[in-house]
Here is the input.
Amino acid sequence: MNSLAIELNEILKDSAAYGFLSPIGKRMYFPKGIVAQSDEAKEKAKRFNATVGLATSKGEPFYLSDIYSSFKDGIFRPSQIFSYAPGGGNKELRALWKDMMIRKNPHLSGKKTSTPIVTGGLTHAISLIADLFVAPGSEVVCPDLFWDNYDLIFTDLADAKLKLFPFYDGNGGFNVEGMKKALEETEGDYARIILNFPNNPTGYTPSREEALRIVDAVKAVADTGKKIMVISDDAYFGLFFENDTEKESLFSYFADAHENIFAIKGDAATKEEMVWGFRVGFLTYASKGFTDAHIDALTKKTLGAIRCTVSNCDMPGQSLILNAMRNGKSYEADKAALFDEMSKRYKAVHVAVSKHDGDRFLTPYPFNSGYFMAFSTNGRDAEDLRRYLLDKYQIGAINIMGRTLRLAYCSVELEGLTELVDTIYKAAEELWS
Ligand SMILES: Cc1ncc(COP(=O)(O)O)c(C=O)c1O
Here is the structure.
């Protein structure tokens, strides 16, 4: 093993994160190679800097003027678009993202966390977590309605197992007891869990009271001596449409909940800043007992994992997002307009669905947030319904694991939603009665 990796492992040994390191995680380190040496040269090599493989003249990169001319004059220097981004991401963007995270999550205020590391979108952030902290053969606890990419990431990439528990309890709330039992039943002294709210595919976020019960339940398991890694997947953060819904990431509570809890937040500009194709996400670490040295070691391991996979994350995306967040004239107004439209669509879907209360074939899962709602097909094949909708009505929806039909109402105009919902019920009736 590389001596730098051994050094980082020594630093992490007395932290909540250490026992979660996978074989890759243990081997990972940030090399003192080209990136580190060119960073050092940026400070000192005032005469000639011959370190980076990036063609420059007079301090700016060469570029295609056909690309540069697509940007408005005077906003970005060529280096802000065409150069490599700094390792870990644009420093100002990372600092601003952290400030914003604390503003949106007041319970994070005063708590020690790492500075968010820029990833190539949230999928990349979760995949990095799997590489670093999910050893082959380990279990990842997850509610049984989940984003299907978790399967590919944890089961197929990491060679781990998803340990599922029923998402809802008997009252249509989040199944806190089921979650606790799954954590308790996880084999060994280490348990991993991924929680995604607002949820894809259900569109559910726990109430404030449920959120506190989730945190208490995880703490109770941590009290028994089990170490728990809690991943908060906050892809749809902020789209909360009801008063009693928890408006903060669970990461705010887990960040300093217990010495045995290792909290990780994955979030992204993808949906929060409406830049789906930019591929800019963030990874943030915290634990009650973390020192600055622990956080630094985890950051170096993560930078190493980025370096040996994508090497560097999207520079134009980072510059554009930073500029909008810092200087945008319509930044708040555009985001408010999206929220307003999504909340109208959410209400319209609720009204449309409630007309079909007690339907034999489709039962909507409780939903209160995000982009989606989903129907249980009550044991019938959701793939049959998906195909029928597509062939007979030219309606696209998603079959989730054969027993759930997911509707992304975020992508349908308000005027069409009642017809969409009515047609789905009608199609189910035609198909199954
Ligand atoms: C629950 C969940 N997590 C993560 C992601 C990944 O987001 P990104 O597009 O930033 O990779 C998605 C995207 O659909 C998602 O639904």
Notes: The CA atoms of residues 65 and 73 lie 12 Å apart. The mean pLDDT is 96. The domain at 3-30+85-327 is CATH 3.40.640.10 (Aspartate Aminotransferase; domain 2). The pocket of pyridoxal-5'-phosphate is lined by residues 121-123, 147, 196, 200, 233, 235, 268, 270, 281 (CB under 6 Å).
